Amino acid sequence: MSLITDKNTVPSLLRNVVANIHPEDQTFLIRKSGAVWEEISYKKTLDTADAIAAYFLEMGIQKGDRLALLIENSPEYVFYDQALQQIGCVNVSVYPTLSEQELEYILNDSGARTILAGNPFLFRKVLKIANHCKELRRIIPVFTDYEKFTAKLSLEAGVIGLGPLIEEGKQVLAAHAPAIKSLRESILPSDLSSLIYTSGTTGIPKGVMLTHSNFVENVKVCLEQIPMIDKDDLFLSFLPLSHVFERTATYHVCCAKGCKIAFAQSLELLAKNMGEIRPTVMNAVPRLLEKIHDKAMKAGTAPGGIKAGIFLWALNVGKTYREIKEAGKEPGIFLSIRQKLADKLVFSKIREKTGGRLKFMLSGGAALPKNVGEFFGNLGVKILEGFGLTETSPVMSVTEYHRQVYGTVGRVIPGIEVGIQDVDTKAFVTVQTHHTFKETFESAEGEIVVRGHCVMKGYWKKPDETGSVIDPDGWFHTGDIGRFYRGNLQITDRIKNMLVNAYGKNIYPTPVENTYLKSQKIEQIFLVGDKREYITAIVVPSKETLQEVFGLKEDFFQQPDQFIQDEHIIDWVGQDIRKLSGELAKFERIKNFKVKRLPFSIEEGEITPTLKAKRKVIEKKYAETIEEMYAGEVEAE
Fold it and tell me: Which residue ranges does the record assign to the AMP-dependent synthetase/ligase domain (predicted)?
């Protein structure tokens, strides 16, 4: 029997696991409770979801109603989502980092009837705007002792803790059980499963309408492309479930395949949790992988002498071994011996920091710098890259485990068409599918468009915006520039990011920024240069490295001047900028830069929750500094 049911609905996945893959007392979810990792079975998950669903029906919630979640990754997220999905409601997950104003907009735009609040900070955020949200009927804090926050408030929506809600649901479950079963079985694949609001780099967030079929078909074909995921795998989840990447690639994949999900305590404790849980699969974003790469390189080379020599020798052996294997050849006996020695002395120690059991990591959300992917490959850790958008459920392409092409985002998934369209003429350069794949195929560059089961139903209550991105032939226009290289999709940048200098040269910032991010001194970089004679940049140095090299204390980073004026630090950053500029065309090279004291942040509205720069916001906010870079002398060439 197939490990995924043919019903193509989200609630059918987990019940199929219990019916055909694991007994109901098998562990499904794992979380840290005090000093102990607590295991939660499929039975407890489904029983809790049933109780929550019964409470919703008792309070008058109906199929199609939108129910919101403002919560970090946790078992409670899963209980709540499974409950609402099985009675045909719509999951509206809100990024915990969004402002009160953005939260209010999303709750009103979606017409959310309930909201789950994950901690006191998020609960207080909801309380501040709750009376401005006309459709909101219940606020549900996950934690206890929440009454102290509501004692002096007059709220139009009722407040009930998740624990008491579950108990009330259990009391009325027998009465509502037939309705829950009937609703679950009546859900159609075309029914709406979730509204995921885009992060809005250029305007007001839009609710992306994703159906049950969008999610389940995406999971099915991704598992076809990565068949080594099996029912005994253990995923460690830390990327936000409010984002479609983690929702599909961890949560829904595990619901479909019967894998366990362990929830990391926080990003700060991720490394510790990896060592404790020892995951076999994990999803990550490029910036995390870059940081692991930087720390490993620093730890390996900092001692100098023989230790650094062994580290660099091992990386070189790993590189040679990997390249021969990827070419489909078998390494010779002497190289194999050297590789085993390199693994024992260096690679195994780095892998042990991840728990030592990782089969692979899946990277998504942004382009992974080629050198970072190769570094992990040299260690014997597979990094599979995927590509897609919220509007594409999200996966459009993903690396095949046995066919790695670094710097690309893999092969087109089954069941969809991906085209490259000339930006100016709109003529198709090529249209590729999973079955037309050829390892030698290459195409010219253009906008990436897609048609098929992964494409969203549209933007919630925004038909004009929907029509502007889905053309009459059903092609969704991603706004990304790319091409096919060695049969795989390769991303260049976003169309809206493209800079055109004063001489008409097109410059895509992302690959240029990734070149400079090879420097261990640089944490973030933002390129400027549209309609200008040359490229400049705002550079954020690595705080940790700055403190080590210059002996800086915390008060240095709290100074009111947003930009660092110390010439020694500026020159120190400039050394790597000048060195790395040699890898770029002359018109792509940074000619002047400013060193920003603190990183661009979500809280300041400078980047999105998925860490994409809000170009217009940054350019407007730092307009005066940008003009100084073009008025002053050139500092880097």
Answer: 20-460
